[in-house]
C-alpha cells in the first residue's frame, strides 16, 4: 500500500496516490511547506507543484512511501519473498465488499452501547469516503465497460442505504429484507 504524506490515507497503487496528492488531499492543499522525508531526503519545497515534481523526478512514483520497496521491472530479479497479487473477478470482490459492509453496518446499528448519532456519523463518513474513491475510479474505466460501472453503482447504492436511518428499520424487520438478498 502507498501512503499519502499529508493525510496518511493508503492507496493500492502509486498512480492513484499521485492523483490524490495532486488534487484531492485536503491536508496537503492547506500546507505552506512540503517536507519530503523520502529516503532520508529532508527537502522542504515551497509549492505543491514543486513538491509533486520532486517526488516524481527524484524518488519516482514507485517510492512514494519509505516502507514500500521499489518495484523491480526485471522478473528475474524478483525475490521469492515478494508479495503476490491474486486476481479475482471484479464482481466477486464487489460482492464480498457488499457482504462485508452489510455485516459491519448491521453490527454497528445493533450495538446499544454506541449512541445513534455516533453510528450515523460513522456511516456518513464511510459514505463520503466511498464516494470519494468512486469519483477517482469512474473516470479511469472506459464507459464501454458497463459491467464495472454497474457494479460500482450497485455498491454505491448499498453504501448510501447503509448510511441512512432506513437501514436500521430494515434490520428490525419492519421494512423487509436487506438489499442484495
UniProtKB/TrEMBL annotation:
Residues 36-59 form the C2H2-type domain. InterPro entries: Znf_C2H2_type. Gene3D superfamilies: Classic Zinc Finger. This is C2H2-type domain-containing protein.
